[in-house]
UniProtKB/TrEMBL annotation:
It holds the Pfam family NCA2. Keywords: Membrane, Mitochondrion, Transmembrane, Transmembrane helix. InterPro entries: NCA2-like (IPR013946). PANTHER family: NUCLEAR CONTROL OF ATPASE PROTEIN 2. One of its GO terms (cellular component) is mitochondrial membrane. It is a multi-pass membrane protein. It comes from the Eukaryota. The chain crosses the membrane at residues 459-484. It is found in: Mitochondrion membrane. It comes from Juglans regia. This is Protein DGS1, mitochondrial.
Length: 596
């Protein structure tokens, strides 16, 4: 009974020593790797955010505001409050940009959550970079030695890692979608008043937007507190989101001076910048790994393979005194020139000669018609002379060769009765020579016909010789074409991009119906969220079809249909009719097989 505690003490001491030394080694290894809080990475992150904002400023036009600003009268009215129009467009553009950034990262984590446990474990170890690979391997070994259930622990860690990011990004997407929907609805409500009476409606609109920013601050503040309490991340979260408040918001009915309006607009711009900075920091902590991080194992293997190949090339190069590479280059060059000459240059020249040279300039054939005619005339005279001497009568000039040959064959058969005697004194030798002449005529006639066939098919043979080069050029052309059409995004070209645009319409239809369902169930917040997501889908569709619709001349009608889908006051049935018409009518949205 006293042996068991001794064994337990020894196992505990072993686990303690293993944990101590593994932690020590891990800290030593991590010390050589750059930390996430280093100033160098901080500068890189800052530069990336600045580049993203620069790309945002250079992006194409986003989904238009629900204002009738296309007519001349509306333009004359909007000249004075153009700053407000610009700030509204900036709010819409920046919100859509941030929403797209959140949605892109959320889709990645959702795809990882749908994978199997093995796929999640592979992601945790091999797709988060070399530092995570070392950390995960050490942790896996440590848990395996300490507890013996390392796979289950790793699966639980992967699920927790992914679900935490999905939760934060989903909440953030919901709040941004609600903010976008509220801004869009308020602009639609103030639209006519802003065009007809901007002096009165402008202060109320600015005060409403200030209130919407305050609501967004409270919602994201609640999300921030939840994240800090439930799921802390590496490096911690930044400070709370704080927007500047507009003073005198209770005086919505009063007239504002131009200075007050300008100050309110500048305050909104500062709030937009604050929101961008906060969201970029928050999303960066939950963003998907970069492409180079996801595929770092492949890139590492490729780098190792490239290093080995470089070392091998260096060994066979002239730098190491080896003429192998020079010889290979010379042989490859000679083979290329020989292939080009045999399968490109000579066939093309032959085709050119066949197409542009006359028959008189062609080279002399194997058999000419004059030679065949000469042999035929000689055989004719021999047959006439043999028949006249054998029959003792003169044949007419139009006697056929067949009749004369029959006379020769009859005489030949008789002479064969006594071949030796008739060979010396008879007509046997003469009949044999006439048959040889006939055989010569038949051979020359066949050669003449064969020569004519070859001459008639010279261009076909030349084309056949050029086929390898033609097929090689065709393959290269297909590769180049596929490379140019490899962009499968909705903005790109090709069948896959066209399919992505049609899927965007399906996404808009689904969100229109979900929005109506939430409205019927009196779920106001969910309805606002779904309306904002519908506006986001419309913005993606707007950007995807703009270039293609302008090329086909459909842009004006298609643009108006997209704007109508975003109007809050239109009935759901009418919107569904519009989406159905868009799928059937517009060329840039039709399936590839229906365009033929």
């Amino acid at each position: 009974m006293e042996v068991v505690p001794v064994e337990n003490d020894e196992s505990k001491n072993f686990k303690t020593l293993f944990s101590f030394y593994s932690s020590y080694l891990w800290n030593r290894v991590v010390g050589f790797l750059p930390t996430s809080a280093s100033s160098f990475l901080g500068k890189i992150s800052y530069l990336c955010r600045q580049a993203a904002r620069a790309r945002l400023r250079g992006r194409r036009e986003c989904l238009p505001l629900p204002l009738a600003s296309d007519s001349l009268d509306s333009y004359m009215v909007l000249r004075k409050p153009s700053r407000v129009y610009d700030v509204l467009e900036n709010i819409l553009k920046h919100t859509l940009f941030n929403l797209h950034n959140v949605q892109k990262n959320l889709q990645f984590w959702q795809s990882r959550a749908e994978g199997s446990n093995a796929r999640k474990m592979y992601f945790m170890i091999f797709e988060r970079g070399p530092r995570a690979f070392i950390h995960g391997s050490v942790k896996l070994i440590r848990v395996c030695v300490a507890e013996g259930s390392s796979m289950q622990h790793l699966c639980h860690s992967a699920a927790s890692h992914i679900s935490e990011r999905i939760k934060v990004l989903s909440c953030l997407r919901s709040e941004l979608a609600i903010f976008l929907a509220q801004i869009y609805v308020e602009v639609d409500r103030f639209g006519e008043e802003l065009l007809t009476d901007p002096e009165t409606s402008l202060p109320a609109l600015l005060a409403t937007i200030n209130g919407l920013f305050s609501n967004l601050e409270a919602s994201i503040g609640h999300l921030h507190a939840t994240c800090q309490r439930d799921a802390p991340v590496e490096g911690g979260y930044s400070g709370l989101l704080k927007f500047e408040k507009l003073l005198g918001v209770s005086q919505e009915g009063s007239q504002w001076t131009d200075c007050e309006v300008g100050e309110a607009i500048n305050l909104i711009y500062r709030n937009i910048h604050t929101l961008d900075s906060y969201l970029s920091d928050l999303v960066a902590k939950h963003r998907k790994p970069r492409k180079i991080t996801l595929h770092w194992v492949r890139y590492t293997c490729g780098a190792v393979g490239l290093s080995i190949c470089s070392f091998w090339v260096l060994q066979h190069s002239s730098l190491m005194g080896s003429p192998d590479i020079d010889n290979w280059i010379r042989e490859a060059r000679d083979s290329t020139f020989s292939f080009f000459k045999d399968h490109v240059e000579q066939p093309l020249r032959s085709i050119r000669d066949e197409l542009f040279d006359t028959f008189r300039k062609r080279h002399k054939g194997v058999m000419e018609p004059e030679e065949v005619q000469l042999t035929s005339n000689s055989l004719r005279r021999m047959l006439l002379t043999f028949g006249e001497q054998t029959k003792g009568q003169k044949f007419p000039e139009n006697a056929s060769d067949q009749e004369l040959l029959e006379i020769v064959m009859e005489r030949y058969e008789k002479e064969l009765a006594h071949p030796i005697q008739n060979l010396l004194n008879g007509e046997l030798a003469r009949a044999l020579l006439i048959q040889v002449q006939k055989l010569k005529l038949d051979i020359e006639t066949a050669m003449l016909e064969l020569d004519q066939i070859l001459k008639a098919n010279e261009i076909n043979f030349a084309i056949l010789a050029a086929l390898p080069a033609f097929f090689l050029s065709l393959i290269l052309l297909m590769v180049v074409r596929a490379w140019f059409k490899q962009d499968t995004r909705a903005e790109g070209r090709g069948r896959m991009a066209r399919l992505q645009r049609r899927l965007l319409i399906v996404e808009v239809e689904k969100r229109i119906m979900q929005f109506q369902t939430y409205v019927d169930q009196n779920q106001e917040k969910d309805a606002q969220c779904m309306f904002g997501l519908m506006l986001y889908s419309l913005d993606r569709l707007y950007r995807a079809v703009e270039r293609h619709a302008k090329a086909t001349g459909e842009w004006q009608c298609l643009r108006q249909d997209i704007i109508d889908l975003g109007k809050p006051g239109l009935q759901t049935t009418y919107k569904l009719l519009v989406t159905s018409r868009m799928e059937r009518i517009y060329d840039c949205l039709l399936p590839a097989f229906k365009r033929q």
